[in-house]
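Exercise 7 asks you to align residues with tokens for two separate proteins.
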Amino acid sequence: MYFYNQTLQNSTSIVNCICGNFRNPKIQDILVSHGTVLELYKIGDQGNLVSIFKSEIFGQIRSMKTFRLPGSRKDFVFIGSDSGAITLLEYSINKNRFIVIHQEIFGKIGRRRVVPGQFLAVDPRGRAVMIGSVEKSRIVYVLSRDSANNVTITSPLEAHRPKTIISSICGVDVGFDNPIFACIETEYGEIENDQTGEAAKNPKKEISFYELDLGLNHVVRKWSDFIEPTSNLLIPVPGGNSGPGGILICSENKITFKNKDHVDIIEYFPKREMNEELKSVLNKVMTQYKKQNKNNENNENNENEEVSDKDNDDDMEVDNTLDSSIEIEDTFITCYSMHKQKGMFFFLLQNQFGDLFKVTLDYDEDEVKKINISYFDTVSIAVDMCLLKNGFLFVASESGNHYFYQFQGTEWNQVKSITENESKNRKQPKTYRIHELQNLASIDEMESISPLISAKFLDLNREGTPQLYCTCGRGGRSSFRVLRHGLSVHEIATSILTGTVPHGIWTIKSNIAAQIDKYIVISYKDSTMFLEIGESVEEITEKRFLNSVSTLLIGLMEDDSIIQVYPHGFRHSNANGRIREWIPPSRKSIAKCTMNSSQLVIYLTGGELIYFELDETGDLQEIRKINFTEEIVCMDISTVPSGRRYASFFAVGTYNNNIRIFSLESEKCLESVALQILDSKPESVIFVEMQSTFGEETETTINTLFLNIGLDNGIFIRLVVDEVNGTLSNSRTRYLGTKPVKLFRVKSAGENSVLALSNRSWLSYNFQSKFYNTPLIYYPLDFAAPFSSEHCEEGIVAISEQTMRIIYIDRFGTTFNETSTPLKLTPRHFVVHPNNQWIMMIQSDRNMLSETEQNQICMYEFRDEIARQENKRSGNQNLNENQNLNEYQYQNENQYQNENQYQNRNLNQYQNQNQYQNQYQNENENQNNEDEDEDEDDEEEEKKQLLNKQEQFLRALRPGENKWASSIKIYDIIQESEVEKFEFGNNESAISICTCSFQQGLFIVVGTVEDLILAPRSFGKAFLYVFQLVGNDPQMMDNGNQRIIEFIHKTKVNGIPYALNDFHGRLIAGIGNHLCIYAMGQKQLLRKCINRGFPTMISHIEVQGNRIFAADIAESIHYVKYNQIENQLTIIADDSLPRYVTAMTVLDYDTVAVGDKFGQIFVLQIPEHIEDEQDIETAERLLWDRGYLNGALNKLNIMCEFHVGEIVCGLQKTVMSAVSCLFYTTMMGSIGVLMPFVSRDDVDFFSLLESLIRKELPPLCGNDHLKFRSSFFPVKAVIDGDLCEMFSLLSSKKQLQIANKLERSVGEVFKKLEDFKNRIL
């Protein structure tokens, strides 16, 4: 058993982000770390973020800092990772990637708490860097340049301090004096020696300053001072000529300026305002909550109908007394960013609620007089922020999407506080009220599904390809998302076309050197429409264009002349206004044609093929004419290569299922030079020159001419054309759909690309040294052409039935497109109802108000905004009704004026008054639809902003540490609407959910826990709720009190019901560390069987026939057999290694795949000698119960081991493209697949390829690939496809060397890699 690992989507979570001048001294870029992936973004022309570099480093990035040497104008990057080395990177523009300048190794591995790498601080003057660990260790490196002007690093200088915990490190700006680094330290020596435990209650923190003596080349602890125990973050203040120097220490509710020989300056952070009316509403909600809990407890004490499990275990009770008042928590600063320019600087700080504060200093030379703090705005809670010099702010969110903002106005650095109520008591902080964004404007949003909690590949919409349904996020930023394979498409404009169905569309520039298009040409059966692009798109009629004919082809020549080809000839219009017509012989017409900037080829009915060339005088000259015996279906001529006047080849496709390549060279003009036999009739064919060879040592782009063929059976073929002799090679095929494939040239990601149209639209393009063939998530298109304007350089104008659509794509390189539905509580798990395909989801949150309580509070706090939206919505409806009535009257009363209006527009293709009226009515309908769409978009945007503001307000309300809000929600995927919601009271938290087929029918079972405390784990009571869907139609919700879901009963259990599953008409449940089987009863579930032999807690249960695979949360997998005759559950086999299981799925009757919290994926198999079909005799039971290594007698065989690098949260066996694969998802948002090999030859090929690339291309940050994939257990029986795909990053020379060792050509290696990737998606 061998698997091929392929990452479909890298992590969307961001761990660190920095900004700097990596590519250009005048342009700042943003470098982000996704954990194991490094990605560089630039700011696009539209203000959006564009990815320009992405690299898998096969390791964990722990810290990143920018670094600039004195006198340099370019920034370098320091990275601390788990490789045990500090890496200095420089961005190479020629190679379009980061390269390693220096790598200093200081440890074997960087995961231990005493190995540096967690903290990184750089001297602001660029002379030294300090790298520190969580405990004890600090190392300083001195940076300089050698005689060749290369960056050098000296030997490490140790600054260790035993028995200390480090919280933060920063470099102090002291000008060009000896570099100083500041550290927040907690010494635990006294705590360790204190037997009473009093020292641990009040740990002492101190700030220590370490000085690097550049003359003596050693580090000393210069001075230290005790600080607040809650201090958590250090912020360096600019020094020298830029500011007073020193540091800012962030602690609970306050910030302190500290510097040597300077008195401490303290300022308190403002707090969110909570007026008395709001407090009254909150207290009322909490009082209702307490009364409800008390009534529920009294009812349970008086009721004797519910019977608990007969078990000797005692329930763990928790005293959970909640105060009825809610207060805003204290403020802690979690991240910051600084803006610095000549003569001024300020800081943006964010607290744990997402509120931003602007901090400035009033100072005179080196003396700070006051710290000014003002509320700025509220954004999503960030793990890091980047403030760019050109007025942009990037926020890497802790949960959900990341945001890119722009400061409002020109004086954005002079923003003042919004609301400040000064108090006489200095310790009493200022207050403020949050508001919608006023100082920031969101201009781009980076989608993120992190943290991803649960996911399933399903085809609920019956699209033919499974979609990924996942729950992600935390609290109010949670969401339910549907991911589809394809690129997201942005729509610029749409217009409904009248008349017959169009059969072609083209775009034309004003001249050959123009960057934007001037005309859009749409061809009908008997006419052609010419649209001029300006401030608006208007129809025109010009002398050089023929409107009364059906256009077969139109294009621009190199002398700025235009050729329009129609069935009865073609018109050649020069730039100076001269027009020439060419008419074919009598009784013949043009059937097919193709052209480039200097050549034209036409095919006449009857089999005549004529070739024209543009001469130096600007005339088209007929060069040669031949009779072609086969009937031509499609044809295309290649573009003119750079440095040449004419192209060398053109291709024709015939009804005989073949493609012929003809030469256009003068000595063998129109001679066949290549033939490609096909399985079906070709529908279209185009030549496209694309980049094909990539390499780290290649500084010039190497382009290859490709011939792309679309067949009528839905197959897309891509071949390489030899630019010397025209021969075809390296054929690659891809099935796109059932309809014939039409091909069009477009521009994508700055390069030539191919748009293939079938049932779906597919885009073939290159991006970051990789080739992609990805579908578009959009309407099916019939015809397309490239479109370029001032606002959209790489757009596409297309025809879809009778609608013209202008679209563009900006997120190249992505695999999935997502749609999102916001949630108010954290989703824990979901299942799919097998009958109606509804999603049933459980949600729960600690220290959070329930959804009903949140709605009550928001209805009061945001009553004005809600009322304004309701009034606007009702006003729009009345306005639309009045507008429709006025338009109807206007059409009846002013018909004569409308007719004159149409005549002035010179619409020659319309011949009578009825056509004018129909056109006018259609335009009115289009305008009304556009206005309605704009109103709907505005309404959706306002609704989104209100929900975002409500989430920002609610995130600061904390009702109590042990207060739980929980519910079960039913969601209809087809209607995209919520069907029903059931909230759990009594401080219950929903833990698990499943559908179970009892003898009475299909039911939903939910496991809940009362008064749950996570650490140390304890709870009050636990229950199993049973529900039943009483209706399958969402319209039943409109019928009074009719409910879709009906509560049947609940059963009290003696442990946390962490895992539930269906088991042959019964319920099998993991109750704590007990495995139980339940049957359906009238008033509760009836326990039929129990096994108490599990070590810790059962977290997952999977059933395969009569076999049960139960996962212990800390002791891996147990294989259990249920003996129906004796009604017993017996553990037959278990794993020999302890593993913290987070995901599990069954592959076949003997095999199970498991993921753990350390990022391992492994496959276990039951030993062959175990025959569980045989009954275990009583005498033999002693052998089963005796165990081996404190476990079961038999041990599961380990078939595969692989380290992903992120917590695995989902595993599922799914069929994709007729191939059964194992998909996995991680908490940080990665999506990958393990595809089984079907032949030993493929295993040998990829094993050798992986080992060769491992030697030639070491990871960027110093880690070893094999070491990373074997982080906890040696990798076994898995080939890393992510490493194999880096074959394209090698130089041409190394690619050839590796291909020779594989006994293949370079093209065959690429084809093998693409074939394996296409098997998955």
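Second protein for Exercise 7:
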Amino acid sequence: MTTTTTTTSSSHILRHTSDFISGVLSQSELRRHLAATLRRETTPLCSQTTLRQLSLASDTIENAISSSSTSIRTSSLTLAEKLLLPLPELPLSSFLLSLLLFLSNRHVDSAVLLLQIFHSNPSLARSEIAPVLYDHLFSLHLLPVFRWFDEHRTRILSESSSDASDYSITEESVVLPCTKLLSRMSENQASKLRELEREYQEAIDQNCRVVAVYFKEVLTSKSSEASISPPLLTLKSTEDVDGGKNKEEIQESQMSVLENGRYNPIWSERETSIEFLSSTSSSKSSHINYYPQRVSPRILKRQKSSKDSAPVYMKSTSENRPSLDGNLSSSSSDSEAESEDDDKNVALLEPRQSQSHEQMQPNLKEFRGSPEYHMAEYDNPPPGTAKNTPPKDFVCPITSNIFDDPVTLETGQTYERKAIEEWFKTGNSTCPITRQKLQNTQLPKTNYVLKRLIASWKEHNPNSVPPSCESPYEESKAVTKTIKVSTLPKDVVKQATVDGIISELRYAINNLYMSDILEESEMAVLHIEKLWREVNLGVDIHSMLSKPPIINGFMEILFNSVQPRVLRAAVFLLAETGSRDHSVIQTLTRVDTDVECIMALFKKGLTEAVVLLYLLKPSTTSLAEMATPESLLAAFNKEEENLVPICLKPKTAALLLFAQVIGSSEERIASSAAKCVFSEKAIGNIVASLEAEWAEERIAAVEILLRCMQEDGTCRNTIAEKADLSPILESFTGATDVECLKIVQFFSELIKLNRRTLNEQILRFIKEEGPFSTMHTLLICLQTGLQDQCPVMAGLLLQLDLLVEPRKMSIYREEAIDTLISCLRNTDFPAAQLAAAHTIMSLQGRFDFSGKSLTREVLLKRAGVDRSPGYLEQVLQINSFYPETEITPEEEKAADDWERKIASVLVSHEFGILFEALADGINSRNPELRSACFISATWLVYMLTILPDTGVQGAARVCLLKQFITKLNSAKDIHDRVLSMLALNSFLHFPDGFHDLTSYTKDILKGLRELKRISPLTSEILKVLVEENESKSDIWIHKELIRVDCSENGEVPSLICFKNKLFSGHSDGTIKVWMVKDTSFHLLQEIQEHLKPVTSLVISESGDRLYSGSLDRTAKVWSIGKAAIHCVQVHDMKEQIHNLIVTDSISCFTAQGAGVKVQSWNGESKLLNSNKYVKCLAHVHGRLYCGCHDSSVQEINLDTGNVSTIQSGSKKLLGKAYPIHALQLHGELIYAAGSSLDGSVIKMWDNSSYRLVGSLQTGLEVRAMAVSSELIYLGGKGVAVEIWDKTKHNKLDTLQTATNSRVLCMSLDRNEEILVIGTSDGQIQAWRVN
């Protein structure tokens, strides 16, 4: 078998880089922070022009991310790429290009540019930009650098170890980070350490660049990945005791690897790296066993004579921890130098200790019941204690500890969950014991049968394992053997032993707070800790240590000592005494600086201090400011085996403190803490705490996860996937009212997943898996809970009850709905009202990926509006990173079934009483309550058209009809008006609904006209309300707004409405700009730049330009401002312009002669339809329609020039022509106004088939025409404007003009609410359509 070196695949690199960039794109705050950091580093390196270009590119990429339009997004990315490509390779430009290319699905190029940041500025990249990416990708390859640093650092520290004590750790020492140095070092050592630290940083930066280049080669190589050799790392060594400098290259294959070439963090962790040192040599062992091994408890060796027994305090507290090898020991010290130094100092107490131990030997023999028992050989159990040894089936073969969370694989082997997870994470897919290939590496649920057996065994063997307690204060891990001495001795020997130990303890206590020498006080702390752990003196030791002077002595140590072991010992003693005696906590909290000192030590890495911090119960504000949430999460994520055993697990204390911070009443503090959970990626560890043995820890985890879901609902799916809800249900039964509320809120948030089937699975688990009836417990909480707590409980109870088909009667359902209605109508509790309204709205059952209710969006879709813009943007972003969220037909069916079920029970409750409560809510002054009630009412009214009629339709109509009509006409939000229209359309399906609606026809039509372009449903309602109404003249009311005399400027040959403005062209060449506001017109501008009549006015497709054509043979282009227009371009058309059509690239106009002139804006021109004299023009979608002098109508394809005839022309009769005077396009029809040769003045054709579909007969000589969605307006000679029904082709009304003159032009505004005409005698007249 050949051994391969460790390589990194391109897929592995892409996975980690894609995860990082995805996270950046999904978090706007993170993007801005990273961009600001990179900009700060880039500013000194480039010019102001480059900085502006980078800033513009950054804004453009942000626009692409936030835009819901595909075209805008594509154009933004293209523009940003053009801005960034010419720039030099700067960290900021590489970062922006990486985001851009990732959005363009060019993931390899994106990853290469991201790695470029590590090449150009490795220090910034690994510390501030992408530390997680550095940990996942680079750290593995840099392990030789870490080992190099540890080796040289150990050499420097070992220079002062010549005076070694009699006892030393012979086989290993745990390597500490470089910042945890001993206080007693020479100036030469300190100088060497500083130089080593500087060279270490240089080596990390240099080799980061090397590894980054290697990664880029792997990504861009077209050959196989195996052909690319791992990089060679260059290392420098400092001047050490041997002198001189050397340079060495270490291949990556020298790293700790398994035979299969994988690095295994279970057996070789960076923070617990092991150096194999003998007593005479610092060389490393040549062989390391990486497979799981049992840990031998023989961890200490006598260095001199085997006759003397080792002092008790040298026994390590890490006896039961996992080790790399059964022959290795795990010292309680943090480094070899520290261990030797501590051993040397502790040896000063040797005479007193040896005397005490000699006195204790007889007592120990009697106590143990065996004259041959020796403390140093505690791995051999004394006679009579074998029954307390745990069965081998209760012990994990990897960790050698009793199972805490056992999982059984398909091979039948059982392992600790965390250990086997680490095994899989390193790339292994086999069973560690059998080496059998596993079909599935997804871990099963906890083996609860085995877990219960272990718990039962612990209860029957209390002396061998920690007792099962609800409170962790009562837990005491037996890491070392306890020496039990009776506090009531039966003989003089025993009494002398106790007196000697107490005397020794008092001596140490005196040294602690009386000595002026720091070293003596530090050794006293270590001695006291040793006595505490190994000798149980009952209450005496507690009372001796709880005195204020002793506590102050411990605090002095915490203030002044820099030795980690001493600091841990002091914290341990303070925490143990404080957990038993509250006066200790009172002593500590009297002085603010004491609390600040403990917080500072915790933030600097003394993780055990978090336990003492928890006991001090600091305020939430001070906790959030001094012990940052990041520090608490770091302590929570730390491996427990690396920590000193203490009264409360540091992980538990950190979790409880973090729950205190995240539950703060200050939104700023709570929100910041929740965001830290996402940035530190701690969700998984917090979810694991839901299975904690202590109920308070489980409740704290529930509170944290609840806040995280409220802050960023995208974590909800992760929680639902990983959480075991059984322990929470166990806590629910005996919880307090506050804890019950948190659990209910947690469940309510958790079932807001974007898949209905998953929601129902969780609901079914909650209902069926609890130790007692969850529904009955909920009912009791509901009946006894506070008013503002009831809605969320009622919502959860109602959903649990409806998991099965609704029964005719259910006490749970009745109580839940009654509670929701009661809370909704209780104006004395606004918070309860709002909670009830939101609960009812969310019962519809559809949610997006973040847990937001989609009731409003679903209703808009049913009304013909796909989604609101905000929702479309959100869906676009979610689909970019979570393509699996696409809803399947099965999911949609499950959602529809649930919606029908829940709506049925809501509307049927007490004959529709819920509609009355919703109507009251719609009238509320609270806008949020008003909106929620309106959406719920719309949803339930819509569902009445689907559900069988149970007699509640009338109640809904009576309560809500007027509300919806008012909303239709007065709502500012256009989507609220659409929802009102959807509800009114539902009323039309009720038996008596049409009759009720017809009495409000005028009010409804007023609101419907503005919705025609938004929802196709509008046309259906209009068809029912308008077309079935016989008296349409009563419906359509035209109220005159204004008459303006412009006769001083001659005729008014052209008009056009645009937004809230009116543009009019006059025969003296004047153009006037009017502001249309309510019922008045205000003249904003009057400008005369044409020399002859302005015959045509056209608005560009973009809406920012006005084109004017004149008989002076020019066409002018005007920029449209807020209050005026400005001429920006003049085109010489060489002929008079009678009619003008404009597109983005060309203009079409009719002149005095035959044909249509087509002229591009660059000056090229051509003549189309040269055989016809064209009177009027119309244009749509690249097709030009011509009304000719001979009464013919033709269509011209502007791309090809092909001409099609819609209506053939006629010859002149008696020398008189019959031209087409007006041509309009609306919808799918062409409207032409000509002379009455065949009795029809107005004719209508289908614009696709040219089929004649209708005609109008009138005696009016039509010269102008306007067409709306329902009406046709005709103007000509005489004193009237005729109004015709567009569908039935009958005349509805006649509008009287101001004078007996010709109507030359007319125009409708965009909303079809204002009609404006211009006459031959210079009059402008307008009507409002109601």
